[in-house]
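Re: beginner question about structure tokens

> Can someone show what the tokenized structure looks like for a real chain? I only ever see the sequence side.

Sure, here's an example I had lying around. Input first:
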Amino acid sequence: MKKITLAILLAFQGMLVMAQSGTTQEATDWEKKLFNSEYALPILTEAAITNAAELENADAAKLQAIEQKKIIRKNFYSGFSINSAYTYGSLGNYNLNGEPINSFNAFDAPLRARYNVGLSMSLPLGQLLSRHNLIKNQELAIAQAEGSRKLAERAVRQRVITLYQNLVLAKSQLELQQQAYQSAVVTHKLAEKQFKSGEIQIDAMSTVQQAFTSSSAALKQAKVNYETQLLLMEDTIGMRLIDLIQSK
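And the corresponding structure tokens:
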């Protein structure tokens, strides 16, 4: 019986890879949508912006600046004060140049209630002159907070794009490794059969075994990388990808 050489065996493996490339398992509907960039990227970006802590901090900084501006405007009225007093009793004695003009016995005088109301104002000149500058400075702080938010949002968008491209690449690598592993499994089984029948030698079988082991390890690595990219994306958007895609 004619021996099958290692070269023929490896050539047969290449043919298996080509034959199996068109029979890969079809992706689920949500995965198809996920890997359609025109559909998925806007959804992922929107979810990431909603979940971004840095944007929440930027919004809080803007609100804080707005409230501080209100406080500065109202500080103008801190120099005004209203005073009031209430007393009840008899009128006191009055005198002019030491001479009493309404001398009477206080115990015999009628009792009366008296109210006193007064308005006072004290505005430091520096505070009054710098009021416009303080308000303008706070308006700049608000504008700065808005600019910081735009920068943070841009950073989130760029991060989503990078993560998405990494996810697409990991998916492609996983599919290639799955095809290579299927081919390695078929080749390994064929080599075992040929080795038992004596059609190939130990060195050829050892080469096939090494290729099978390498393919298995590469597939596991590809799976781990793909799952890692999925988790990173889900951490960024704050929910599971399947839930996000199916909700749209």
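Each token stands for a local structural state, so reading them left to right follows the chain. The longest strand covers residues 80-89.
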